[in-house]
Amino acid sequence: MRSPSSANWATKPSLPSPGANGVDSVTESPHIPAQETILERAAVDGSKFRTAFVVLLVVIVSGLFLALAWPLLRPLMIGAILSGLCTPMFNWFVRLFGGRRGLASIATLIVLFFIIAGPISAMLGLAVQQAVTVSDRALPWLQDRFGSATSFDANRWIIDHFPFAEDFAPSQTEIVNGLSNAVRGVGTYLVSSASSFTAGTAGFLLEFFVMIYAMFFFLKDGRRILAKIFYYMPLAHADEERILERFISISRATIKGTLLIGLLQGTLGGLGFFFAGIGGSAFWGVIMVLLSVIPGVGAGLVWVPAVIYLYVAGQFLPATLLLIWCATVVSTIDNVLRPRLVGQDAQMHDLMIFIGTLGGLFLFGPIGFVIGPVVCGLFLLAWEIYGAAFRDILPPVGEIRTSLRPAEPIKVQLDHDRKKKESPAPRRRRKS
Question: What number of other Cβ atoms are within 10 A of residue 298's Cβ?
């Protein structure tokens, strides 16, 4: 039987011609199909049907699997990121234990647990203690500052300090009770949030178990898992290596930069609060550490209201000194270190880091400050691979004209082109 590629399909039958013995015979034209044409057509149709069925089966089963794994996506991604960052330590344990990867994986998890659990437990314990102190002292502090509802006219105090509020200034009782409830509510919320996080709710314990369990196999069988994943990806090996390298580099840069910036801002901001005479300086320093994951404005969400409070309370010198300290030192840390620690290592623009961080926090929760930038980095890399694959098809970018600036030619340079230009050209050998 001939192959389907050799089959010729009839477009117009030929007329019968007389044979050697005078009997009319049909001349087999190259356009007339042979007898096995039907079988060949069935084979081709069967092959296409099998291909379509396999693709449809893979899509349906993969969709069902993703639906099953979606509730566990966050701990799985955290486990994958931490496994990639702990690979050097894991390889050291593998050499130490003579190639026993399972034992090396367990040792890596134990060390990682103590490295993470120790500082986080101490920081959260200090924050909870300070939050309880702040919430318990809220009402006595307000009564000491404004007096009781009968001995001090808070309505008059607000009008004297803010004349524009005379028409809508609330009553004395509403002011004291409202401020007290607000401060007490913040403290109660932080205490309950920290308690639910550390005391061990069912959801937290489940995610923690899934993360640890996944990390064990990611470390032990990570190479085989990656080899299997890359086998099914129709990409060049160089592109697969770029994906893995970008995933690890962005994760490392984000965690390293965010933790370092947060610790510096929280420590220096807490010291500023302490010397300014603001109670619970350690608590507010921890809050700065947590909010520092938001690029540019994280620490300012804490120290700006504190400066306003000091000015309103009449403490102009501490307020001015705290403003100068936080504006020139605390906030400068974020503006100076984040582009170098995060943007440079992650090879991403500051805007993409900002979008990835905020979007990750909204979508994945607290751990989103790592997952978000990783997703943005892979998004940019996917488009770079697309641009390299369709370089010959994509049209060149013309001049972009605006009403504010004259037309300037825009040159789009891919990442691999940049690396080629930066790499030195090979030297030619002289002919002897």
Answer: 22
